[in-house]
Amino acid sequence: MEKRYPLTAAQNMHYQWIRSYATQQVSGLSVVAAFQADVDVNLMKKSINEEYRRYSCLRLRFTKPDKKGVISQYVSEWKKQDFPEKDLRDMTMDEADDVMQKWAYETFDGDDIPMSEFFIVHLPDNYNGFFVHMDHRLCDSVGIAVMVNDIMGVYAHYKYGTGLPQEHTDYEKVLEQDLKREANPKRLARAKKFWDSQLELYGEPVYSDIQGMRVLEESRRRHKNPDLKAADIEKKDLQVLVKDYALEPENTARVIEFCKEKQVSPTNLLLLVIRTYLSKVCDGQEDITVENFIARRSTQDEIFSGGSRTLCYPCRTVIPADTTFIDAVRKIQDVQNHIYMNGSYDPELVRDEIRKRYGTPEDTSYVSCYLTYQPPLPTRNATSGLPSHIKWFANGAATKKMYLTVSHLPDGALNFSYHYQNAHLTEKDMEILYYYMMRILFRGIEDPQRTVGEIMALV
Amino acid sequence: MEKRFKEIIAGYCTLSADEITNDMTFRDDLGLSSFDLMTLLGDLEDEFDVEFDLGADEHKLSGIQTVGDAIDFLEDYVN
Fold first, then answer.
1. In chain B, positions 21-40, which contact chain A (CB-CB < 8 Å)?
2. What are the structural domains of chain B?
3. Do A71 and A9 share a structural domain?
4. Is A296 a domain residue?
């Protein structure tokens, strides 16, 4: 029998969302990778089968929950499989994307079943490749990028006789290291000390919303508690919509140059921009929390072993209006550095501690905005220079009110992808948010000695 | 300690421990990001059973550029 393992903190985060929102849809992850070239379908299928062997996280399955709801994971045996072909040539690319978007809404329901699937796709304008849909506990976005790159490398090996890409690191080897690290009592104690110190310094966090103070005030009325500091979250209508904006390459270059010159990370700069906007629309509130996704993929083994390594931690800062922009970034950097150092701590423990201390009501949150910044991705194999159609599809169900993913586009632009809950937000809200974020960003980097209060007044 | 330290750093880059020299910089020569450096500090705490104080050591930590700088810093802690 295959060896059973507990979930890592990163996998447990997704599992808890599945349980809390009662649908596996919140853990769906889908990508199409197609290239403008004829594809040998049999060789592509052979390459994907080979990837199932090489990248064993694709074979992960989960056991039935025990009485306490706890599940285990295991890597199932490799078996050759067939992958259905989907012909979408007789439509526009937008229509083909709409069809694939519907596939992304599908769920993997059941225990001890495969949690990933591939289709060979034929798209308009002779784009051909594959669509992959899987549970997020198998892989995160960096892991997917590594996988796509590897499949193309394996395909090139079969098709053109190029060298077979280097093997991935064994998933179970890295999993065992992760579980050992997470269980290290000294590490756990150090991390808990940091998180507790934040609460001892600042007390209970307070909610801030893109739509201003009225959201928290409505929750206070609903709970008949004028001192409530957390706001209700949406549990029923999880439909998510997506709006993308691209920051032009020349302006992106200015941002990246600022980061290099001041030695600050783009993540910390973006966190400051979001929190400044929230502060502005929440009557100058100084105590703001934004949740930030980080992926522990620092070592070569971690980068190339697959698995879900993404964790979401609250970045809470209390920044008075007279703080300069650059000092505010440094303040965020300091908090983030502590989080990175303790990056294997289960974020659920952070939330448990807050709930325990302050009696936070069920189904409420201190956070409305979530951020992921994706740096340019590491690759081991040269990607082909062929025109490509690579698109990530939303799973259609958001556990978060607004989730912003910032990533680099091939032309040097920075893409801002806003995933927002349709029940509460509109495209207009996202347009306003992006507009103000850019104004705050550029007022800040053009004169980092400006205070955040001045910037809020200027924009 | 230096040997073990370089073995750990080797896990973060594409060089072997033997290829890592004390004058190499973390960012330019080894390609580590600020996130990687903080993750590395966490791993060093586990490996050498020490606890860094990011607040008190901010000045020293921000001055670490090379592998040799980090070894000196770590030796102070371990000793």
1. 32-36, 38-40
2. 2-78 (1.10.1200.10)
3. yes
4. yes
Q: Do B39 and A341 touch (CB under 8 A)?
A: yes
Same-domain status, A319 and A212: yes
Which ipTM did the prediction report? 0.85
Identify whether A77 is part of a domain: yes
Q: Please tell me whether residues A141 and A248 are part of one structural domain.
A: no
The rounded distance, in Å, linking the Cα atoms of A134 and A58 is 8
Of A190, A299, A337, the CB nearest to B38: A337
Domain at A198, CATH number: 3.30.559.30
In a domain, A180, yes or no: no
Instruction: For residue B39, give the nearest of A267, A301, A340 by CB distance.
Output: A340
| Final residue of a structural domain among A153, A175, A197 | A175
Strands A388-393 and A127-135: unpaired
Within 8 A of A309 by CB-CB distance, chain B residues are none
Residues of A in contact with B32 (CB under 8 A): 298
State the CB neighbour count (10 A cutoff) for residue A261. 10
Q: Are residues A24 and A123 in the same domain?
A: yes
Which one-letter DSSP state was computed for residue A386? S
Q: Which range of residues forms the domain containing residue A315?
A: 185-458
Tens of pLDDT along chain A (459 residues) come to 899 999 999 999 999 999 998 999 999 999 999 999 999 999 999 999 999 999 999 999 999 999 999 999 999 999 999 999 999 999 999 999 999 999 999 999 999 999 999 999 999 999 999 999 999 999 998 899 899 999 999 999 999 999 999 999 999 999 999 999 999 999 999 999 999 999 999 999 999 999 999 999 999 999 999 999 999 999 888 888 989 999 999 999 999 999 999 989 999 999 999 999 999 999 999 999 999 999 888 899 999 999 999 999 999 999 999 999 999 999 999 999 999 998 889 999 999 999 999 999 999 999 999 999 987 755 544 455 678 888 888 888 888 899 999 988 878 999 999 999 999 999 999 999 999 999 999 999 999 999 999 999 999
Residue A443 C-alpha, separation from nearest chain B C-alpha, in angstroms: 25
Residues of chain B found within 8 Å of residue A184, distances taken between Cβ atoms: 46
First vs last Cα of chain A: how many Å apart?
62
Cα A85 to Cα A231: distance, rounded to the nearest angstrom: 46
- Report yes or no on A293 lying in a domain: yes
User: Which among A402, A395, A448 is positioned nearest to A421, based on CA atoms?
Assistant: A402
**Tokens 């609903």 — which residue?**
A222
User: What is the per-residue burial (b if ≥16 Cβ within 10 Å, else e) of A199-235?
Assistant: beeeebbbbbbbbeeebbeebbeeeeeeebbbbbbbe
What residues of chain A lie within 8 A of the CB of B63, using their CB? none
From A175, A200, A224, give the residue that closes a domain: A175
CATH number reported for the structural domain that contains residue A102 in this entry? 3.30.559.10
Looking at the structure, tell me whether residues A250 and A348 fall in a common domain. yes
Written as one string, the DSSP assignment of B18-55 is GG--TT-BTTTTT---HHHHHHHHHHHHHHHT----TT
- The two tokens of residue A367 are 């956070």
